[in-house]
Structures are given as structure tokens and as C-alpha cells.
Amino acid sequence: MLSQEVFDYLKEVGCCTICCLRFLKVRGDEYMNVAKTLQRLGLKDTCSDAENGEESGPTSKKTKPNVCVACLGFFSDEFLAKLTEALTTHPHLIQYECDEFVLAISFPILLNVRQLSLWLALIDKFGQMHGFVSNKQPDVPLKEVSKMVISPKVSQALGKKYGQNGMMISISINHADETAELQKLTEVDQILFKTNCTNNKSKKDKKGTVNGMTRGYFEKNFLPSNIDVDIYKQNIPVPPAIPDSSMIVENIAVSGPTIFVAGRYQKFCRVLPHTPWILNGKRVMADSVQELIVQSVAPYFEVPESKVIFSSSGREDVDVRCLGKGRPFVLEIPDSKRIILPQSVAENMEIEIDQTEKIRVINLQIVPREELVHIKFGEEKKTKTYRALCILNEPATVEVLQKLNIPEGFEIKQWTPIRVLHRRPLLQRPRRVHSVKARVDPNDHKILILDIVTQAGTYIKELVHGDFNRTDPCFAKLIGQDIDIAALDVLAVDLDWPKDVNNRISGQCETVRDKNEIDDLNKS
Ligand SMILES: [Zn+2]
């Protein structure tokens, strides 16, 4: 039987059972139970089975198997034990309270050389008969098989599940012979290639690695069809020689997953910028909405505040409050040490933020990455509701009030306001004002309170006074007299996200200050 012949040959030259199966193109979960797979394929391991910890009979003597010529011992029990020990004792890994992980393993290029040598040997020995040809990879890639063999073992050792949203464990694996063997390869690099192939060699792939040999360069050029096989064989053993030592775990780097914490904030302060306000390298104001939130959230996830990215559904000016249900925001937290946010912790964060008395946060929660579309896209379709305190030169007439009660709304054209030109491109944007409701302050008839519903992205201050005709029409134009804006509040951001969660479980909810009162607007 042909498979048995190939299997026997691979065993004879020093492959481990898993690598034999790789070169027999066995795929997927067949590697979960190697003994069963051998049985299913009708393969008999006539050499020692000691490497799998099985003994073929009570009389057989367990001999120490050689280090596999193909995987350099990567799939051996000894190496797996070394790897799991390195992982379980890793000083950083234990910092992560994260029940899922993803593995990224980087292998030495030496494995590619080994594969090529075996490839050439198999072509020599079996050729077309068993599908070993010079233009088709001879094996199932080590990376693919390692997922089936290594990941379950790591999972067991760490007590964590394999999952795409988990922490990333990057393992660099190396071998003592890597440098020397690649050096040998580099030496023959110039004479190895058939003349018609030399032009195809991409020199730019070669920079900055061991002896100028990169995996990309190797995989692209070192193919049986490209090289002069005789010269290769004179310099590199075919089949590959049995190595003296096994792979070593060179480095393990761990990074946490990126998690997203969303919520809504209300802003009560008229001297608080959205993000740190720094002018010519100097801070203009001590705090910002961003910093007040991040400083209470980042420590729990053990991430430096500077690494956290804050974004929100729009923003308000430094002197504008944001009331009502507040404005949705999300924090992107990279390399997080934790992936869950218990409600009691969220509550403490919210209470701590309350104590700043400048902002208030509700509905703090972890959200999946997919939900960020709510905050990042469709901004122009959203509507915002504002309350503006405006001042006239003369007491408001009935006519003025009538002109500023516009339930049907209207269209405007708005050039980028002069005050933001330094940070926004000069553009004229069409915007929809959905409705305007006006009433007069009973204590001072020069003061108007306007409730304005607009398309997101409308500049409200300019909608009131016109910004030197750069916003057209504006309220001043509609009423035919000067009108200025004294204070502005955001009353509603029409994004119903993230979902409501009541974190104030311990009842430490302060009484909600009704910040929407006109009096209050007037005073502040
Ligand atoms: Zn192997």
C-alpha cells in the first residue's frame, strides 16, 4: 500500500508521526487523536511509537525517539511540556483576567529549509506516484496542524478557551541551528538558482533578517522547480539530517484584547472642553470630558490613560452643556487586562465620575466591536435637540415670536464657522433645521428661549447670528434684527445606544438634578 510506503519512508528518515501525517495530507481534526487516525487510514507504525507515549507491546523497550527532522521536535511531548510550562509561569500572562486566547506562533525559517529537503527527497523516492511534484506544496502546513495539536494543549494548560476575542499570545520559536543553516543557504544563494530564474529573485525581500534570508524570500524562490537540485544537495542534506536538539521557546509576548466600553455622558459645566484643550503646547483648561471619563475607567482595565481612545456621537463646544439622556460615547481600550466589567465596578466608576460634578455618566458597559457602527457612521442622519438662550436688543414682539416658531423647519447653507476654521476644512454644507420653538423669558422680554431640532453637524451659534452671512438663512435674518446667543444646551442626541443598563444597583444614585430649567440655563 502506497501510503504505508510513504509513511515508512518518512519514519525511516526521522519524521514524527504527526509530520508523517502532514506529508500524507491528513487534515483538520484528524490530528486530535493520532492513534485513531492511523487506524482509520490502515497505517502501521513499524518503528517505535515511543514518541507518542505508546508502547506497541509489553515486551517492547521504550527508546528515546530522535528529534523530528521536519518539525524539529515541535510536536513532541517534551516540547509541548516545555511550552506549556513557559506559558503557565509567564509573569505577564497571569495579569490578564481573560478567559479566551489567540495563539500566534512564529517559526524559524529553518523549518522551510527542512520542508524543502524532504520535498526533494519525496520527489526522488516517489515522484508523481504519490503526488509529490515540484510545483505543489508536499505537506499540510505546520501552522495549520499546530492549531489542532498545540491550541488544545495550551487551552488545557491555561484553563482558557481558544477564541478570537481573547488575549493574543505570541510565541517565538527558534532552533539552535537556525543561524548556521541559513548561513549555509545564503552562501549558495548566488549559484543555486537556474539561470532563467535569477531575475525573478526579489532582492528587496532579503533585508533585515538572519543572513539576509527571510521567510518570504525563501518561500518565493526556494522551490524545487527554481533551484539546481544537484547544487542544493551538495550543500544541504536531502533528506534532512537528524538534528541534535529540539526547538526552543525563544520569547512569549502577551497582549490583551481591545475592548470597548460605551456609555452616555451628560455635561453640566460651561468651562469644560470635549478633549484636552492645548494651545501652543500649553493647557488652556485643566480638564476635559474625555479625561474625566478615562481617568475613572482605565485603571480597572490596567491600561495607561494615554492609550485609551475616546470617541462620541458628535461633540459640544467648551461652553455648551449636554443634558437630557446625554451623549453616547465609547472608549477603545487596547491591551486590556480584563474583558468583563461587573455592574458593581461600573457603578463605582459612574459614582466616581459624578463626584467631579462637571459631568455624569450612565449606562457604562462593554460593547462588542460590531456595535461601533452606531457611533461611527450615519452621523449626518442623526438629529440633535438644543435649547438656546438668545438675547435681542429690544423686547421680543409677537411678530418676532411668530417668525421663530417654525414647526415645519427649513434648509440652510452653512460655511465652516470662522471660529473653527483653524481645525476644519472650508466647506459649505447644506443642513436641515427640523423645527424651532420660541418663547420669551417672562422676567426679561429681551431674552428668548429657543428649542431647536437640527440635523447633526449643524453649527447652532452660527444658525442664530449668521456668522457674517456665512450661515444662510439665520435667525437674525428671519426676524430682521440682531440676535445673539448667550448660552446653549444639548437636550437630546437621538442615538439610542448603548442599551440602558441600570448600574446604580446599590441605590447610591444621586437625585437627578433637573438641569433643563430655564432659570438654571439663565444663571449659568
Ligand atoms: Zn515532526
TrEMBL record:
Gene3D superfamilies for the chain: 3.30.70.2510, 3.30.70.3190
Cited InterPro entries: PsdUridine_synth_cat_dom_sf (IPR020103), Pus10-like (IPR039894), Pus10-like_C (IPR048741), Pus10_N_euk (IPR048742)
A UniProt-annotated Pfam family: Pus10_C
Key word Manganese present: no
Key word Isomerase present: yes
Residue intervals of the Pus10-like C-terminal domain: 260-494
TM regions (residue ranges): none
Gene Ontology terms, MF aspect: RNA binding; tRNA pseudouridine(55) synthase activity
Gene Ontology terms: biological process: tRNA pseudouridine synthesis
Residue stretches making up the Pus10 N-terminal eukaryotes domain: 68-253
EC number of the protein: 5.4.99.25
Entry keywords, A to Z: Isomerase, tRNA processing
Stated family: Belongs to the pseudouridine synthase Pus10 family.
Protein name as annotated: tRNA pseudouridine(55) synthase
